């Protein structure tokens, strides 16, 4: 057991073992004693975390616990105030925000523009975008103005736009928040498809969620944050069925009030 510099303590499993596991390639992300301050507010406190290729990691915790800041740090949108953050993926990753931005053009062009910005010729970008929409079961929406799509359709379109870039890692901030049950299932299916991608792509996915059922279904590892600290970092079964620090245990039971 490793205790973090938080008053609640922490349970960490696997981080040290993964780093010492012989011939494994270096981690996609390697954070060491990272703080992130927004003015007088410390959003992350002493966070140490490694994420390897192929992992599916869920970030859980109450509002204000630091989940979104951690995702933004992994995507290099914020820089550490103190500590070290090594992000090996950098240009081979994509991030989806809770409310994705849609350009006022067709769904097809929304996907193609991402490819074009990565250097793909426009005609080829449209061809690849069309295939990506077809693979996702969204070909019938290709000509629709993306701004007119439902919330669930826009979230799925954002997933297609990210997936078409062949990222090494996908970061998602509350990807199914405010969606109806049907739309949530569709987005979850796309998330599952990402982590089950074909051989050789070795993608990783890191997502934040308040939906613990979703975490059980999708994640293989759970990181619980509280007041900017990593309190627990465990395989998913150990998180839900093993011993936890009191704060994390109360959160899983729905009894944690901050």
In short:
With 258 residues, this protein is an alpha/beta fold.
Tags for this model:
258 residues, alpha/beta, 10 strands
Beta-strand content bin: 15-25%
- As residue ranges, the low-confidence spans are 1-5, 13-23
Helix/strand structural class: alpha/beta
- Number of DSSP E strands: 10
Strands side by side in the biggest sheet = 1-10-9-4-8-7-6
The sequence of SSEs as H and E is EHEEEHEEHHHEHEHEEHH
Could you tell me the radius of gyration in angstroms? 19 Å
Work out the helicity level. Answer: 25-40%
Mean pLDDT: 85
**Morphology call:** globular
Instruction: Report the major sheet.
Output: 7 strands, mixed
List the total number of helices: 9
CA distance, first residue to last residue? 25 Å
Give an overview in words.
- The structure is a single chain.
- α3 packs parallel to α5.
- The relative contact order is 0.20.
- With about 260 residues, the protein is α/β, with parallel strands linked by helices.
- The protein has a seven-stranded mixed beta sheet with strand order 1-10-9-4-8-7-6, with helices on both faces. Strands 3-2-5 form a three-stranded antiparallel beta sheet.
- The chain has nine helices and ten strands.
